[in-house]
User: Fold these one by one.
Assistant:
Number 1:
Amino acid sequence: MWGHQSAARLPDAYPQFFSRGEGCRLWDADGREYIDFMCAWGPMVLGYRDADVEAAVDAQRQRGNGLNGPTERLVELAELMVETVPHADWAMFQKNGTDATTACAMIAREATAKRKLLLATGAYHGAVPWCNPYPNGATAEDRAHVIRYEYNDDASLERAAAEAGNDLAGIFVSAFKHDLGKTHQRPNQSFAAAARNICDKTGAALIVDDVRAGFRLHMGGSWELVGVRPDLSAWSKAIANGYALGAVTGNEKFREAAGRIFVTGSFWCGAVSMAAALASIRKMKDIGAVDMMQRMGQRLRDGIAAQARSHGVALQQSGPVQMPVILFENDDDRRKGWLFCTEALKRGIYLHATHTMFLSAAHTAADIDRTLEATDAALAEVARQFA
Amino acid sequence: MWGHQSAARLPDAYPQFFSRGEGCRLWDADGREYIDFMCAWGPMVLGYRDADVEAAVDAQRQRGNGLNGPTERLVELAELMVETVPHADWAMFQKNGTDATTACAMIAREATAKRKLLLATGAYHGAVPWCNPYPNGATAEDRAHVIRYEYNDDASLERAAAEAGNDLAGIFVSAFKHDLGKTHQRPNQSFAAAARNICDKTGAALIVDDVRAGFRLHMGGSWELVGVRPDLSAWSKAIANGYALGAVTGNEKFREAAGRIFVTGSFWCGAVSMAAALASIRKMKDIGAVDMMQRMGQRLRDGIAAQARSHGVALQQSGPVQMPVILFENDDDRRKGWLFCTEALKRGIYLHATHTMFLSAAHTAADIDRTLEATDAALAEVARQFA
C-alpha cells in the first residue's frame, strides 16, 4: 500500500481495508464500525452516501459520464463556482488536488513568464516531484525554482520574494498552516496582507491551496476569513462529497494564461463527479454545512479540553474546530498521541494523531457525545500510562 | 475549454458539449446522434453504460467509494492485473494516465538512483511539465533529464542511451507510435529488442506507456505482440470502461522502489472505479473484446480502402485496425482530412482527422456498415472538392 492511505504508517490496531460507509460511520473489512473523523481524508463532507448527492449521481449516470467532451454539468459547475467563490471569474476542472496545484503553478509561470515559486517550509501541495514532501524518485532540477519561506512569517516571505527577484511567478499559501504533526495555525492578517502585497507589486500569482480546507472553513474560499483574495485557488477534497474532482478558480488577470497551458486528463470531463459536486455544493449552502461542522467541532473541542483537564493530561488542540489536530505535550515520539487514538479506535472512534482530522455535516451532537465517551476513556488510559 | 477535449481544436461543425452515451452511440447537447469512433478518447471500450459494468458500479456504490483506506476491490483488482498481464508481479492504482506515467518515471529513478529518461520525439506521455507536448507553463529544468530518440530507430535509441551514459534511469516507449497527425507504426522487432537489451545491460527500466492502447491490442499488454516484456507499464484509458482509473504494473525488480516513492491522491483508492475495472476486464476477457474490435476495425478499414479506390482518393490507413488513423495524401493543411470527417459528422459519424481513433466492443457489423455509408458520401465529397 502506498501514499497517505498506507496503514503501515499507523499503529497496528488500525485497519488497512474498509468495506462500507454511511453518514459519519464507516466499517472496516472485518466489520468493525467507527465514527469517522478522517472523512476519507477530507472528501466526505456531507456524509458517506449522502442521499441528495447520490440521487444526482444516479440521474447523471442514466445519461453518461465521460463522453467525447464535457456535458452541460461542466458549465453549470463552473457557473456555481464563480457564483460561490468571490475571487473566481472562471473555473477549470481536474481529478485530484495535485492536478489542481500543478495547473496553478503552470498558469502562474505562463502568465508571468517567470519561474520562481514560493512554498512554505513543510507545507503539503501534492505528491509529484515539484512539490512532493519526500525526495524519492525526484531530481534536484524538479525543485530548481522553488524557494521556501516560513508560514505566518512576513519577514521570511519578504526575504524569499527578494531572493526570487524579478523572476517571481507565484506564492503558494496553504489555506492555513496544517503541516503533519505540527500545531495548526490560521494565517495571520499581516502575513496574508504581505503575500497579497508582494503579488500586487510584482504581478506574481497569489495561489491559495484550498485542497484540504476548501468548503470546510468558508464556502467562498478559506482566505475569505482573513479578507484577502487570491488570484488562483486549487480545490479538490470536499468539492464533490467523495467523487473524484479537482478545480482551479482564477481571476480575470490569469484567465488567458489558463487558456494557453495544455493540461488535460482522460477523465477530467467526467460528468458524474461534476453532478455530484453540483449537488454537494448546493446542499452545503442550503443546510449551512460549514456552521454545522463548526458547532460539532466546537462541541468536540470543548469536551476534550474538559476531559484533558480532569485527567490532568496536557494537550493542545489546534486548527479550525472543524479541521482539528490534537497534539500532546512532551510527546515527540507520538507515543501519547497514538495511545490516545488507539484507545479511541478500540471504542469505535477513528482519529489520527498527527494529520489534520475532519468533521462533516453528518456528525450529530449524539455522535460527538458518543465520541467523547471514548475519548474520556482514552485520556484516562494516557493519564494512567504516562502518570 | 482546455486540453484535448477543446472543440476549438476542431472544425466548427464539431460539438463542444455532449449530453448522453449508450453503446457505441453518443448525443451532443443539441440532441444530434453519432456513432462514435473516439470512445471518449479511449476509455469507452465495452460501450457507454455497459450493463455489466454499471451493475458492478451500482453494487459498489451501495457500500461505499472513497473511505479511509482502500476496499477489498483494490486487492482483487491488483490480483486480476497480475493474473492478466504477464510482466506484472504487482500493481498500484491512480486516477489518470499522467499519474501513471509520472509514477513510472519516479519508480525508475528511485530504483536506479539515476536520472535520465529517454522519450521518443513526438510521443505523448501526459500533460504535466516533464512530458507535456506544449512548453507553456514549464521551465527548462522540468525536462533537464529527458533525452529524445526516434521511435523504431534502433541507432537513434542507442545514441540516446549513450548520451545518458551511466545516468540512465529508464526508457519510455509508447505501445505503438501514435503521434498526433502522423502515420501510426507498430514497434518493430529490432527496436523492441534493442530497448529491452539496453535496459538489461544498464539496469534501467523499460517502461511501456500503455495508457492509450492498453487492453485494446492485447489483454496482457501491447508489447506482448512483439514478445518483449517491460519492467513497468502505465495504464489508464480502457481499464474501467470510462470510470476514472490509472494503474502501474511492474516486475519484482522494481517492487521495492515502487514502495519507496511517495505518490498518492485523495481519490486514488475510490472503490467504484475499481469495481468498474474488475467488471470491465473480466467481461473483456469473457467476450474476447480485443478480437471483436479487431474484426470490426478490419471491416471498417477494408470498406474505406475500397471506397477510396473507387473515388480515386489517395489515403493511408495506419495503426492497429481497432485504433486507426486515416491520413490523406498531399494534405499537410489537413483540409482533406477535416472535410472527410466533417462530411461524416453531418451524417452521424464521429471521426477525428489527426488523432488515433478507437473502436469498441459495442460496435457491431451493422454500425460499421452504417458508418461506411457515411464515409462513402464523405469520400465522394473529398473527391469532388479536390478533383
Number 2:
Amino acid sequence: MKLTPHILALLLAWALPSLALAAPLPSWNSGVAKQAILNFVQKTTDPDSKDFIPLPERIAVFDNDGTLWPENPLPFQLAFTLDELHRRLPEEPSWKDDSAVQAALGGDLPALLADHYKGLFRIIELVGSGMTTEDFAARVRAWFSTARHPRFKRPYDQLAYQPMLEVLEFLRDNGFKTFIVSGGGADFLRIFTEKTYGIPPEQVVGSNTRAVFELKDSGPVLVKTMADLFIDDKSAKPVGIYQFIGRRPIVAFGNSDGDKQMLEYTTIANPHSSLGVIVHHTDAEREYAYDAKPKSTGQLVAALAEAADRGWIVVDMKKDWRRIFPE
Amino acid sequence: MKLTPHILALLLAWALPSLALAAPLPSWNSGVAKQAILNFVQKTTDPDSKDFIPLPERIAVFDNDGTLWPENPLPFQLAFTLDELHRRLPEEPSWKDDSAVQAALGGDLPALLADHYKGLFRIIELVGSGMTTEDFAARVRAWFSTARHPRFKRPYDQLAYQPMLEVLEFLRDNGFKTFIVSGGGADFLRIFTEKTYGIPPEQVVGSNTRAVFELKDSGPVLVKTMADLFIDDKSAKPVGIYQFIGRRPIVAFGNSDGDKQMLEYTTIANPHSSLGVIVHHTDAEREYAYDAKPKSTGQLVAALAEAADRGWIVVDMKKDWRRIFPE
C-alpha cells in the first residue's frame, strides 16, 4: 500500500472522531447491564488482561426482531409480507383460493403460525419466490420507503433501538465484528442492515433458501426459490453461526427463547470470556411489555429462567434505557 | 473509541509498512495480466475516476483449488480424506465392505468421481460426519502438521501460489474484502485460510452441510452431518455468493470451468467495473500443465473459450509468474 492522499484521508477519518468521542452508551442509564457491557469490553480489549481476546476472535452476534428493533404489533417482515400480498393480489387471482392467503387476509395470525408456521411460509413463498433477487430487493426497498409503523408512525427502518445502535458502535469501535443472526429472512434483512445498523450484507445470517442461477441475454440473475429452506431460529442459530461465520461468538444479544441456544453456544464452556445479554421488554409506555405472553413472536420464558445460572445479563428496557428510538 | 496506546499501536502498525512497501505484485512478470490487475485497482480506488467503487462494494472472490494452490496429483482435501480413511480403517472394520471405500483404497479415482462424485461424497461422509466440528477441525490440523505433498515435499499449506498471495494482499491494501468461493469443504478450508491467505473463516464460502446442535454436560457442540449438502461449484457458485455474501463481487479469480458461472456473475452486466481472471496452468516444469485434460479436477475448456468475449484476463503461469511458491 502506498500512503496516497486518499489513504491518508482514510487514516485521519478513522483516527479523528475518536479524539472527540464522548463516553460510550449515552442512552443507557447507569446500572448492572451498562456496567457489564463496559466491563466486558474493557477486559477483553486490554492486552494486559487475562481476559484479552485477539481481534479476529471478537465476534458479536445479535438477534434482530425484539433485540435491535420492535416485533410488534407484527414482526416487520410479516408486515411487509402482508402488504405485498395485498398489493399483488389483483394480479394473482389464484391466490384467493389458498387457505394461507385467506388466513392472512382475515388477519388470523394464529392460523398462519400453526403447524410450525406452515401458513406463514406459504405466504412468504407466494410473495418471496419466483422473482429475481434484484426484483425482490427492489420491492423491499419500495416498502421501506412508503410503509409506516402503525403506532410509532415512522418508516420501519427508523425504529432501531438507540441504545442497541450504541452497543453495536461501541463494540465495533473496540474491534468487534458485529453480525445479525436472525430468524428473519436474510434477503429482507440485507436491504436495511447496512444503513440502519452499520452491518454489511456479508455479516447477516438469517433464514434463507437457495436461489437458482440463470444467464439471460440481459445478464446473470438469481431466481428466488424455497429450496433448502433454513429457518434460523432456536437450535438452528448455532448451526447457522457455524455455517456462515465459522467461529464461536464471544458476545450474543437476544430477547426470546428463540435465542436461548445462541446464548448457550456463546457463553457455556467458551474458552474465551463471553457475554450473553437478554433484552427484556418491560416498557409498555414507550415500547411494549411482554415475555411469557407476547403479542406476536418473542416468547421469553426458558431463556429468562436460565439467565441467572448462565450469568446472562437481563436488560430491563424501562429502567436501563434512557430512550428507546433515535430522535 | 478512545485513542489508547493500544489503538495508537494498531494505527502505526497499519500505516508504517505502507511507507516502506515496494511495488505491488513483485512475483509477477510485466505483461498484460499484471497490468490489467494494477489498472483495475487503480481506476476503481481513485475517487476521481468514473470507475471508482465505494469501499463496501469492493468484494473479491477467489476459487481455491488450482487458483490459490495446486490441485495435483489430487485436490488436497481429497488427499486428506484418503489419508483419514486409511488412518481410521483399523477402528472401522465395516468400512471395508463399502464399494466407495474399495475404490478409494484401490486408487480408482474415476470410480470415485463417477455419477456426480457419488463415491467421493460417500468417503467424505465416512470421514467427515458423525463427529463434532471441533473434533473434525483437530483432525484437519493434525493432517496439515504431518502430511507432505508427494512432489513438492512441503506441508500442503505452504504451497499457496506466491503471486496469488500478493494479489490478495494488494487487493486488501486497497480496501477490497477477499473471499474464498470454493468447491472444497468450508470446514476443511477454514482451518488454514486465515493463516495461509489472511482470509478469516467468515469470508470462506465452500461446499457445506448442516450440523446439529447439542448441549452436552461438557458444553455445547455441533455434530457434523451430510444434511442439506451444498456443492459449491459451477452454477452453485453464484448461488453460494448470494447466500453467504449477499452482494455481487467485482473481482473474481478462477482456473476451471467450475468457475465459469462465478466469472459470468461477476463480470457480465455488472453496474460496476469488474475484473475476471483465469489462472491457466501452463508450467509443467515448476507446477503442472493442463486444461482440457486435467490430471484430477480443474478442467478448463468452456471458460477459456469464453474468456476473450468476456474480457477475462488469462494468466499464463509459465510466462506471467516469476515464481510459483513462497521461498
Number 3:
Amino acid sequence: MAAKQNIEEGTNFTPKFDSNGLIRTIAQDAKTGQVLMAAFMNRQALDLTIQTGFATYFSTSRQKLWKKGEESGHTQKVEQILVDCDQDCLLLKVTVDAGQCHVGYQSCFYRALKKGSSKELEFIAEKVYNPEKTYKK
Amino acid sequence: MAAKQNIEEGTNFTPKFDSNGLIRTIAQDAKTGQVLMAAFMNRQALDLTIQTGFATYFSTSRQKLWKKGEESGHTQKVEQILVDCDQDCLLLKVTVDAGQCHVGYQSCFYRALKKGSSKELEFIAEKVYNPEKTYKK
C-alpha cells in the first residue's frame, strides 16, 4: 500500500486525528527522559504548539484548549515533536520546571502496581509542590 | 469529590477504560528511558500482561489481542506498570531487545518535525533490523 508506506516511511507530517478530532500526545522531559503526562491535542492545539513553542493540549474533561501551565505556571517548552510510525501519536520532548502534574508530582505517573498484585498501587515519587497553593479555588 | 481523590491519591488500581473498553498504554525502555511505542489495552490484555509479565496489547487495527513480539520475536518484558493521576493511561517500563517498531526501528518514534516547519518530518534514527526478513509474508 503506497499510502501506508508514505505514512510510515515518508517525510510528510500527516497526523491522524481520531473520530473526535484528537491525537494522543505524550510529554517527555527532554533532559531526564521521564514521561511526564499523556494528553490529547486537536488540530488547533497542535498548530498553537508548533507556532508558540509551548505545549497546548485539548482538555477532554473541560472540552477546551488548554495551554499547559496557563493556571499553574508549569509550562512545557517544546524542544522536539516526534510522531510514531502510523502517525496517530505524538511525543513532545519538553523542558519543564518542577511539578508537571496537578496533583503535586513531577510526573503524572507517580504510582506503580505493586509487585505480585493486580489491584494495589504504591507511590514511587514524592510531591514536589503544593497544588493547593498553586491552583486558585 | 471523594471519588476523584481516591482515584488520584489512593492505592486502589482502578484503570479507566474508555467507551471502547480500551486504555492508552505507553511502553518505555526501562534501561534507556526511550519511549518505544504507544498502544491500547483492553481488560483482558492488561490481565494477561500482569499474569505473564510480558506486554500484551489490543490491536485496534486487527481488533484482537496482540502479544507484543508474537510474530517478530521482539517481546517486552514488563518490569513495572505505572498509572497516571486519573488512571486513564498506563506506562510500562519494559526490557527489550533491538527493534521494537514493525518498520525496523528501535522505537516507533523515529521521525521528528523539522525545526521551523509544520509539515516536514526528518528521520532521527537508523533502522536496527530488516522487517522484511522478520515478518512472514
Number 4:
Amino acid sequence: MSDATERRRARRARHTAAAAAQHMKPITYDLPVYELLSRAGEQRLHDAAMRILAEFGIDFYDAEARAILKDHGADVRGDTVFFDEALIQKYVGLAPRQFTQLARNPANSVTIGGNQVVLAPVYGAPFVQDLDRGRREATLEDFRNFVKLAYLSPYIHHSGGTIVEPTDEPVWTRHLDMVFSHIKYGDKAFMGSVTSGPNAADSVAMAEIVFGADAIREQPALLSLINVSSPRRYDERMLAAIKVYARARQAMIITPFILAGAMGPTTIAGTLAQQNAEALAGIALCQMIEPGTPVVYGSFLTNIDLQSGSPVFGSPESQIGLYASAQLSRRYGLPFRGGGMFSSAKLPDAQAGYESVMVMLPTIMARTNFVLHAAGWLENGLVSGYEKFVLDCEILGMLHTWARGIDLSDEALAFDAFAEVPPGGHYLGTAHTMRHFRDAFYRAELFDYNSSEQWELNGAEDSYTRANKKLKQLLAAYEPPALDPGVEEALADYMRRRKEQIALEPHDF
Amino acid sequence: MSDATERRRARRARHTAAAAAQHMKPITYDLPVYELLSRAGEQRLHDAAMRILAEFGIDFYDAEARAILKDHGADVRGDTVFFDEALIQKYVGLAPRQFTQLARNPANSVTIGGNQVVLAPVYGAPFVQDLDRGRREATLEDFRNFVKLAYLSPYIHHSGGTIVEPTDEPVWTRHLDMVFSHIKYGDKAFMGSVTSGPNAADSVAMAEIVFGADAIREQPALLSLINVSSPRRYDERMLAAIKVYARARQAMIITPFILAGAMGPTTIAGTLAQQNAEALAGIALCQMIEPGTPVVYGSFLTNIDLQSGSPVFGSPESQIGLYASAQLSRRYGLPFRGGGMFSSAKLPDAQAGYESVMVMLPTIMARTNFVLHAAGWLENGLVSGYEKFVLDCEILGMLHTWARGIDLSDEALAFDAFAEVPPGGHYLGTAHTMRHFRDAFYRAELFDYNSSEQWELNGAEDSYTRANKKLKQLLAAYEPPALDPGVEEALADYMRRRKEQIALEPHDF
C-alpha cells in the first residue's frame, strides 16, 4: 500500500470514528415490553419480599446507616434491620421515576428511566483478552483503550465505570486515574468509585471540577454501582459510598449480586424475592438520607452450575429472572438496570455469541433502562475482551434498528413497487428501492455476508480475526475529544494532591 | 484408556442416546406471546395483502390449478389470478387451526398449531461442513448422519425433510432415498418431496406403506414445504405437489420465500404485505382442492445486503418480519412456520452464535408452531454444519427450559431456605437446595463453565472443537430404532420398482 493510500485510509477512518462518536443516541423503546409475569405473579414476588424484610431483615454493617434507618422507623436489632411494607413504600416512593445524567458533552447526557435504554461497557474485569496477546492482567492503558472504544461506538451511550481494573496502578489511587480517564479520553457520562467513602468523595470532587458543584446537585454527573453483598447484607464500603453519593444527590444503582444456588435459593422465584427485598431496602435507605436521590433498581441475577459451582451466564433461568426483575422495577416506578452481553466463554467463539444474545435480546425486550456489560464481557466477567467488545457493538447496532420497530406508512407498504414489478421480477431497480437504498437495512460491518468463494479469497477469517483488525483500525484512528485546558489542569492538580495525601495514609490489608 | 473403560463409556453413551431419543417432547408455550403489531397495524397488513390480491394478483403456472381457482370464484386472466377478500376468507377459514402429524413412533407424533412449538433440522443444504473435512458437497451418508443426529436429540421434535441434498444420488430418485432414510434411521415425523408431482406421489405411497392408506387420510403423515417463487408466482412443480398432497389430505407449509430488496420491496412492511397475499392465495387453493387440508402459514423472510446483494441472516429486520408474520397467522387461525437458527457465517464462530440466537429467540417468543432450520444452518442455508447442529441443540435445550416459565409456588419461594441461611451465608447446603439439586437448572454440555485454569488444562478448546468431539460420540453411539422387517422390505421393494421405472423415463434439463 502506498503512503498516500495509507494516509487517505487513515483520514477516512478518523472521519468515520469522529462521525460515529457524534451520532450516539440512546434507544427510545416504544415497542411493546415483554411482560413475563401476570399481575398476580408480580404481587406474589412483592409479597414474598415484604415477608423477607419483615421476618428475616437485612444486615447493614454501618452504625450511622442503622441509626438513620432507626430514626426513620425501621426496627433495628443488632446489625439486622427489619422493615414493614408501609415504610418501604413510603421511602421507595420518594425516588424519581427517571432522571438525566450529565455528560461533559451535553449532547451525550442521558435520561435514565422511562422508555430509554442506555448501554454501557463491561464493568469490573481484572483481566483483558485479545487475539494477539491472549489473556493477561488489565492495565491503565487497557482501561484507556476501552474508554476510547466506548467513545467511538455510536451504540454505546455511556462510558461506564471500572471497565477493567488497572492493576498496574496502586489500589489506593487507581480510582482517580479511572475517573480522570473517563473525562479525558471520552465525553460520555460515567460512573463514580464505590470502593470506599473517600473514593466516592474524590469522584464527586472531580465531577464538581468538570460540571460545577451546583450543577451536579440539580442533575447528577455520577451514576455509581452499589452492590449488595447478598444474601441480605450491605457492607461498610458500600454504605460509606451510599452516604457520600446520596448527600451529594448523585445517582446510584442498587444491585443485589445473586447467583441462584449460592447467594440465593436454588429457584428463580426465591432468588427474585430475595433480590427484591435487598434492592428495596437499600433504595429506601438512600431516600431516608436524601429524599429524591436518583436511584436505579438493579439486578445481577443468574445461577450457578450445580455440578461445578461455577456461575453460568446466558442461561434460560437468567432470562426469566431478568424479565421478572424489570417488571418489578416498573411496579415500583423505578428505572431498571439489568442484563448485558454475558458469557462464560473464554474467548469470542460460538458459545460467546450464543450466550450473549440469549441475555442481551431479553435485556432490550424487558426495556432495561441502564445496561452495564453491554459490550466486552467474557469468562464470567473476569475478562474484558477487546474483540468481544467490537463484536458486541455490532449486535447493539442491530438492536438500535430493532427498537425502531416497523414503519407501516403508505410509503413503506410500497404499492408503487408492486405496480412496477411483475410476478417473478426483481425489486432492486425500482424507484421505491432507490428511495430507500441508503438506510433501508442495518449492515453489520464485522459479520461476513460474502459468498463462500469470496470469503475464502478474503482469507477465510472467522469473526474473531475480523474483529481484531477492526479494533486496531479504531484505536489507530482515535482522536481525543477536546477538553478545556483549565479543567484538565484542575483535575490533574486535584489528583496530584490526593495521591500525595493517600501516600501518607495507613493502609490495612 | 483400558478396553473395559472404553466399553463402559460406549455403553453409557448408548444409554444416554437412547434415553435422549425417548424423551423428546415438543415445547408447550404458555408464556405470553410477543406481539409487535397493534391491532390497527395487523389490519393494515391484512388490507394491503387484500389490495395486492385484488389489484395485482398472483400467477399460477398450472392450467388445472387455474381452472380450480376459476371454478371456485377467482378472477383468472391469463396466468394471473385475482382474489377478493370474501373469497380468501371463505377458503382460508376452512383450514384447521391445528392438526396432528403422525410419526412411526406414536410417542413422537406432533401437534402442529395452538400453543405447540415443533423444532426440525435445517432443510435444503447442498453442502455440509465440519471441523475435520471442511466444506464439501453433501452425500446420502451425510443425510443419514443428520437424520441420526435429529433422532438422538431430545430437543429436535421432527426429522425434517431435505436436511441436506444427497448429491451423490441421481437427482431423479434421491427423494426415495431421503424418505426411506427418515423412516429407517429415525422414528420422528418427516416431510415429503416437493420436487415434482410424481415425487410427491412417491412420498405419499411410502407413507401409506408405513402408516396405512386410511390412517394418513385421518391424520397426515407428511408435512411438506411448498415454496412460493416470490414475487407472486406459484410454479408448476409446486402446484403439482400441492395437488397431490391436498388430494391425499397431507399437510403443507405454504411459504413465500422473500429476501426484502430482491423478491420483495426494500421495506419490511411492503414485504410482509406481499408475503401475506402470496401465502393466503396458496392456502385458499389447497382448501378449494380439498376442504380441511392441513396447512401451515409459512414465512421465510429476511433482507439482502444492499451493498453486495447477498442475503443477510440474523438481521433486526428479519426479527420484525417474524413477529409480524406470526401475528398475522394467528389472526387467520392458522398454524405458523418461521424462523430458525439462521446465520450468514461460514463456520460456527461468534458470528454464527450471535446471528442464530438473534432469530431463534424471537422464533420462540412469537410462538412459532413449526420451526424448520432449528439446527445446523450455516452460510445462508447453503451449508448444513455438523458442529453447528449440535451447538444449536444446546440452545434449543435452553429454550425448552425458558418455555417452562417461572414456578411461583410456595416451594419455589423458598422460605425455609431464607430461614436457614443467615446474611452472608451460602444456599448450597440447605435442605431446599437438596430438594431441587437434580433438576434446578439447565446445563449445556458443550458450553464451558470451567475456570480459565481448568479450561486451559482441558486443552483450551473453543466450542467448535468441543462440538466436534460430541458429534463423533453421538454418531459412534447411535443405534437405529427398531423397524418392522415387513415394512422395511415393502419400502425397499417400492423403491426398487420406482427406480427401475424412473430409469426408463425421459429427463429434460
